[in-house]
Amino acid sequence: QVQVAESGGGLVQAGGSLRLSCTASGRRFAMGWFRQAPGKGREFVAAIRRRDDSTYYGDSVKGRFTISRDDAVNMVYLQMNSLRPEDTAVYYCAARTTGWGTLDFEYDYWGQGTQVTVSS
């Protein structure tokens, strides 16, 4: 059974930075980050391909967030800079065995989520 786990959430002031971490057991996956704010649907944030580490971003985070991978420690990171109050959400890490995607149903394995709160 594949296990996905996120860490690194917290409370930060607007303009600040946080780095989220994610690990998925078993093998190298294509990985994605999604977020869900209260009362809203799940939103695509970023993804990194398994094959070549190509990266993709949602429009609302382009230029501010960076997804990366470190195979030596089997971790995927989401570096979040210039945070805004509207970035407040539960952030989820997800894994898929092939390809990549921006839709949550395209991912096979999910973490429990980590809360990010940005104060104004």
Write up this protein.
This protein has 120 residues and is mainly β. 0% of the residues lie in helices and 50% in strands. It has strands at 4-7, 10-13, 18-24, 30-36, 42-48, 55-57, 65-70, 75-80, 89-96, 109-110, 114-119. Strands 2, 4, 5, 6, 9, 10 and 11 form a seven-stranded mixed β-sheet that branches. Strands 1-3-8-7 form a four-stranded antiparallel β-sheet, with no helix packed on it. The chain is globular. The mean pLDDT is 95.
List the helices and strands and how they pair.
Elements: E1 4-7, E2 10-13, E3 18-24, E4 30-36, E5 42-48, E6 55-57, E7 65-70, E8 75-80, E9 89-96, E10 109-110, E11 114-119
Parallel strand pairs: 2-11
Antiparallel strand pairs: 1-3, 3-8, 4-5, 4-9, 5-6, 7-8, 9-10, 9-11
Tally of strands:
11
How does the major sheet shape up? 7 strands, mixed
Q: Unreliable segments (pLDDT under 50, ≥5 consecutive)?
A: none
- In angstroms, what is the radius of gyration? 13 Å
- Helical content band: under 10%
Strand content: over 45%
Structural class, please? mainly beta
How far from one another are the termini?
40 Å
Order of helices and strands: EEEEEEEEEEE
Shape, per Cα inertia axes? globular
Put simply, the count of helices is: 0
The overall average pLDDT, rounded, is: 95
